[in-house]
Amino acid sequence: MSEKRFTPGRVTWRELMTLDSQRAKAFYGELFGWTFVPFDLGPDGGNYEGIKLGEKLIGGIWEIRKGESPTSIFMSYVSVKDVDAAAKRAQENGGQVAHGPKDIPNMGRFAVLMDSDNAVIIAYQDLNGDPEPAMPKAGEFCWETLSTNDVERAKAFYSKVFGWQARSFQGGMSVFGVDDTPEGAVADIEKAQNMPPQWFTYVVVDRIETARDKAAKLGAQVLVPLVEVPNIGRIAMIVDPTGAPLGLFDHGGKA
Asked: Which positions fall inside the VOC domain (predicted)?
């Protein structure tokens, strides 16, 4: 048996909490070629399924029960050494624990955290260890971005909770990461957008225009048609037919 490997501070799992799992599965199956497999998370697990790309398990999808959430949303899981300690650090540094800490039978332990501005992220320890880091391929999750009204406060919070260091990046953004491995970015919200602070996750696509237009034909709303990030790639933002925001990323428009 291989030794379990843990990578504290890395984003290791993404989960779609959706108001309509059947509609979401039809949309993402067509857009990215995702398939879905049942997960048994015990009596409290609800209607949970794993997301697969080919034979690779890349995330989960959970149909929200009535009253649990007003909207569909992607959630990002960050690996931690001790979930309870991370939850305590969040509370000590101006955040809240929205749910947990709690065990997932035969899988791990998690806590849903809210940062100083109520953006939601999950602290997680997997009983089976973390997946081996690899360059994401088309159809796989690749990146997170935090939109916030207070960048400096966000930097301080996530430094304390996850041990992330922040460094300056182009365009007025900062990049979060552990050592030299970036895990996400943080950027100011323009108050005119009337957007609450929140985390966004991104999926790699072969070409932004093709994926964006296909998403629109399948019922998505296009929030941001195209943004060029010099020397990095290109992004677009959509909202899926169930209301969940998602970013698309390509490496510069090459097919």
From this structure: 10-126, 140-251
One-letter-per-residue 3-state SS of the chain = CCCCCCCCCCEEEEEEEECCHHHHHHHHHHHHCCEEEECCCCCCCCCEEEEEECCEEEEEEEECCCCCCCCCEEEEEEECCCHHHHHHHHHHCCCEEEEEEEEECCCEEEEEEECCCCCEEEEEEECCCCCCCCCCCCCCEEEEEEEECCHHHHHHHHHHHHCCEEEECHHHCEEEEECCEEEEEEEECCHHHCCCCEEEEEEECCCHHHHHHHHHHCCCEEEEEEEEECCCEEEEEEECCCCCEEEEEECCCCC
Q: Which CATH architecture has domain 11-126?
A: Roll (3.10)
For residue 52, the Cα-to-chain-centroid distance in whole angstroms is 16
Structure confidence by residue, pLDDT tens digits, 16-72: 999 999 999 999 999 999 999 998 776 666 688 999 999 999 999 999 876 666 789
Q: Where are the domains of the chain?
A: 11-126, 141-250
Q: Cβ of 30: how many Cβ atoms within 10 Å?
A: 14
Distances (CA, A) of 136 to 139, 146, 203, 205: 8, 20, 9, 10
Return the closest-CA partner of residue 157 out of 106, 198, 196, 114.
114
Check: CB of residue 197 under 8 Å from CB of residue 117.
yes
Question: What is the pLDDT at residue 45?
Answer: 60
CATH code linked to domain 141-250 = 3.10.180.10
